[in-house]
Prior knowledge:
It is a single chain. This protein is α/β, with parallel strands linked by helices and 259 residues long. 35% of the residues lie in helices and 26% in strands.
Amino acid sequence: MQNNMMLGVDVGGSGIKGGLVNIETGEMIGERFRLETPKPSHPDAVAEVFSKVIEHFEWTDVIGCGFPSVVKNGVTYTAANIDKGWIGVNAAEILSEACGQEVFVRNDADLAGLAELTFGVGKEHQNGVVLLITIGSGLGSALFINGHMVPNTEFGHLYLKGQDSIAEHYAADSARKREDLSWKAWGNRFNEYLEHINFLFSPNLIILGGGASKKFAKYKEQLKVKTKVIPASLLNSAGIIGAAYFAHQNKQRLATAAE
Ligand code: BGC
């Protein structure tokens, strides 16, 4: 095993994806490996599939994992697009026990943001307020101020169209699919969301990540918000790359603490 290589896993509402990453360059090494997220996605079922992803890579070191929840010290506090059984449990412990390696867990969008700011388009934008929005089953957010992350921002849960509708129910990629919207119609909705968030936080740059970032050309004309909006350069591998980098950071932290 090369010592500049780490394994990152991105747990999502529809798939659990893993990949080996060169943590010096942020490049993926070999193919990603994806298994369907079990339905229902309760902790035991997800932990089992998570272990299969780790087994696939025959990995025997610490692991980084992005999870679609508010995560503090390994504990998952919310579950918008995953089984409610994850609320209030120690996800890091559950996943570590299941695969026999130490797993470090953090919010998925925060880790995608970490990857983009370390290796991707955000690398050149370490000053001011940078906001990354991941567009998938939900809307994830990562906020950086002068390159420092403010974790667990959950801007996909802002109320947008009255008290009954949080933004991600209206403007995530799942809303486009569910309501069979054209990219143009969805782009107009997403622009409403960006206008709202832009008004609240006045970022210097907005980066779009997640599955829909690959389709940026199909809706970019709809984005009228008066802040620069660019697609993430690591596209939907950002979650895996950020997770691997997070594992590396934790491994270094533990090594320093042991010195
Ligand atoms: C969750 C966030 C997550 C986002 C993207 C939202 O529903 O609340 O924690 O980052 O989906 O997966």
